[in-house]
Amino acid sequence: MSLVAALKGNGPTGFGYGSTADEVVKDLNLEGKNILITGCNSGLGLYTMQTLSQKGARIIAAARTIEKAKNATQDLSGEFLPMACELSEPTSVAKCADELVKRGEHIDVILCNAGIMALPKLQVQHGLELQFLTNHIGHFILITRLLDQLKDDGRVVLLSSSAHQMAPKKGIELDNLDGKQGYKPWRAYGQSKLANLLCARELARRFEGSHKTANAVHPGVIMTNLGRHSQGDVINFLGSTLGNALFLKSIPQGAASQTYLAAHPDAAKYSGEYFADCNVAKSSAHGKDMALAQALWEKSEEIVKDFNL
Ligand SMILES: NC(=O)c1ccc[n+]([C@@H]2O[C@H](COP(=O)([O-])OP(=O)(O)OC[C@H]3O[C@@H](n4cnc5c(N)ncnc54)[C@H](OP(=O)(O)O)[C@@H]3O)[C@@H](O)[C@H]2O)c1
Fold first, then answer.
1. Would you tell me which of 17, 49, 74, 269 could form a disulfide with 8, CB atoms 3.0–4.6 Å apart?
2. For residue 162, what pLDDT is reported?
């Protein structure tokens, strides 16, 4: 056990900083569960997919291309439905969702895991800054098109990040979603992760009165491919032995919170929460702002409507 894990201990769920995804599902049988995971070919998504499938869940494995989804699943035992879902291309996301509707898939969990971080230069696609488009709008399209497929006790889990605290002063700059009035890599990443958190909060509000849940997750800080666009001293330090020991979780630990929210029976009682270390955590003030959550939802609907999907 790492020093940090020992110091932090476990929380009310019985799990904590040091818990792994394998520990979370240890006593579970997930046969009959149908779980959609985006970003299934790398890092936390790949590990979560492996862990859930080993316990019997059928995985709808979404990646940017069908080849990536097939490659990620081909050596695993279990049941998989590989799907192409390029989150920065609204037509690809809509095609993926519509195919699942056409197949009559009933879905237990939509795990919105895929993401990109801190693009060094402003990139604009379909009139939107690329992290906002990929991390938020792509998943918004996927979720909203699949809402009728979600089972009565279905769950939506969105990967946010503690970096949601790096969002702009306004929280979400609804008047600067193309970044043209100012762009900073971490601020834009923070904004997109705040959007993931607010999307979970607003969805949970819309689920009130049902058994469906929606929650957001900060997985910890884990060395995955996510840092591919970031350079500099902080990333180098995190990769060093000392940085690793002090600040980093392993991939099995990083996958624990999303695995808990997706699969653990006890997690059914949580909705509209922000999780870290497998327990309810505190978010920024913007992360609790339900007026902003509603405004973001309405703006996202407008954006998606204009795509004419
Ligand atoms: N690692 C951390 O420390 C950390 C901390 C806080 C939050 N998170 C969040 O955790 C999630 C998983 O990240 P990770 O650490 O596992 O990173 P990762 O190893 O880079 O995996 C990210 C996944 O997202 C996919 N993806 C990226 N852009 C996409 C697009 N346009 N369409 C479809 N899929 C796309 C990637 O596919 P390709 O391989 O094809 O690019 C990959 O499968 C992210 O949402 C991230 O923001 C991670």
1. 17
2. 97
